[in-house]
Hints:
Elements lengths: L3 H23 L8 H29 L5 H6 L10 H4 L5 H22 L5 H29 L3 H14 L11 H8 L6 H19 L21 H9 L1 H5 L6
Amino acid sequence: MADKDALFKFLCRMGDNCLIIGHRNSEWCGHAPILEEDIALANIALDFIGQTQLWLGLAGEVEGEGRTADNLAYLRDAFDFKNFLLVEQPNGDFAQTLTRQMLFDAWHLPMLQALKESSDERIAAIAEKAVKEAKYHLERSRNLCLHMGDGTEESKRRMQDAIDLLWPYTGEMFKSDNVDEAMVAAGVAPDLADIKATWDNFMDEFFAEAELVKPENAWFQQGGKTGTHTEHMGFLLADMQFLQRAYPGATW
Length: 252
């Protein structure tokens, strides 16, 4: 059986990643370059928020202190969030948003596919539901990044700039710690080394097809998984949590 504290932290990591990247996508609502993308990004944001409810809802049950998914989403401070630094990065231009999405999707899909075999039936059930959406997310983000990568000189430049900017945040997704090791030992989650192998293969194929240059960074930013975030996180939470903070317990 998995350690209760480690399981809670793992579930929060899964939920927080979905919540934060979902919020970032929602920021495009009414601002996307074309109407079709405006609607698509809003729908993807809703997919992630739906997954957040499942992960954080289960986290609250495991914790056993009466906190709900809403409590965990709206009443924690930045240092209590355990999401990757990658997903909290600003939207920037459309190339930056798409690159951030693809880099995360390429991790998220194989993780969910592996979690379908989790020893925890509740986690396996969430993964079974979420993996269907994740497949679409990755297909979409990859295709759009490819179109921009092998498009005009301007779109290619923007894609390369976005990759160079965000690449240093990808290493954290595969940095294993005591929580990850506990989940592997209990059969709850896969070894991150296996996820990285799948991710690396995907990215190699992408760079070859898109004719973009793969960065050769030997170092990576990290800290999000343990609650140390970039300066962007506080501003994001101030926006996302304002209503609940201003009117505690408010209902429609």
